[in-house]
Amino acid sequence: MSEVGYRVIAVKSSNAHRTELFGYGVYVGDLRIPTGTVTCLGKLEPGEPNFRNPCIILDSGAIVWGTQCWWSTREEWERKIDPTRPNETVDPPENPVLCDHDLLCAVAYLPGNRDRWRARIREMAAVVS
What we know:
Blueprint: E1 7-14, E2 19-32, E3 38-39, E4 42-43, E5 52-58, E6 63-65, E7 70-73, H1 74-80, E8 87-89, H2 100-108, H3 114-128
Parallel strand pairs: 2-8
Antiparallel strand pairs: 1-2, 1-7, 2-5, 3-4, 5-6
């Protein structure tokens, strides 16, 4: 597991011939998945438990959940994968917007903001949990 604020890569699929990437981004913590998100178990409907899952904010601004991809730190991924294997960047799934608190947390971890907000976000997350 990565620490909150780490740079990560989100991968849709990978085989011996190629890798489909959602892209690079920042792991912002295990947040509650919003209603309407399509998970590995299907679409999360109103009234169903919205469990916590790793949330990744891609450099593009898109949100990807751990249940929708494989992910790891950039360094781990680049050590494990053959650098000559072709990579293709694909569009991430369309996900519902995060609630205001979670969106604030996510924006705080975008490059350039991480160090400034790290302690404050942890405090806020402890209050909400």
